[in-house]
Amino acid sequence: MKIIPLDKEHFVAVSSIYLEGLATGVASFETEAPSWDQWDEKFLNSYRFVAMVQGEVAGWCALSAVSKRQVYSGVAEDTIYIASKFQRKGIGNTLLRHLISESEKAGFWTLQAGIFPQNKASIELHKQCGFRIIGIREKIARRDGKWYDNMLMERRSTKQFK
C-alpha cells in the first residue's frame, strides 16, 4: 500500500467509495455524492490522501476546516472512507494515522469526527488512533426523513505548538 496526495484524477474512484459508504445509511447525512467542485471546496487542499493498493484507490481521507475564524485554525474535522473490498485490512488505520501525522506537522492541535453511533467500525478505528468520545448530539439531523444521533469524537495532539 502506498499513500499519496489525492488529485482530481482520483475523484471517480473517491466518489465511488463515498457512494458505497452512503449506501450503508450510517456513514453520512448526505445522500448523494458531490461534484468535484463541491468536494474540492469542502476539503483542505494539502490534507487529502488516497491509499493505493496495486494501482487501485482502496480508500481516501481528508480534513475540512471547522471554522474560518483564526482562533480555530488548528482544528479540523476528518473524513475517511475505505472501499468495501479493502475493509478490515488495516488500510483505514494506516491512512488515518498518516492524516494525523500530516496534520500535526502543519500545526493542527485538534481533530474531530462526527460519527453515527451505529457505525461501530469507524468509532473503533478512531479510538485506535487516539480519538475519544466527547458526546452525542441527539437527533442532530435527518437522513431520508429519519432523525439520527451523531457521536462527536476528538483527538488532541500531544505535540507542543507555539
Shape: globular
Strands, total number? 7
CATH architecture title of one domain? 3-Layer(aba) Sandwich
Low-confidence stretches: none
CATH class term of one domain: Alpha Beta
Any chance you could write out the topology, listing elements then pairs?
Layout: E1 2-5, H1 11-23, H2 36-42, E2 48-53, E3 56-65, E4 75-82, H3 91-105, E5 110-115, H4 120-128, E6 132-143, E7 146-156
Please supply descriptive tags for the structure shown above:
globular; alpha+beta; Aminopeptidase; 27% helix; 7 strands; 162 residues; 4 helices; seven-stranded mixed sheet
Short account of what is shown:
Helices cover 27% and strands 35% of the residues. With 162 residues, the protein is an alpha+beta fold.
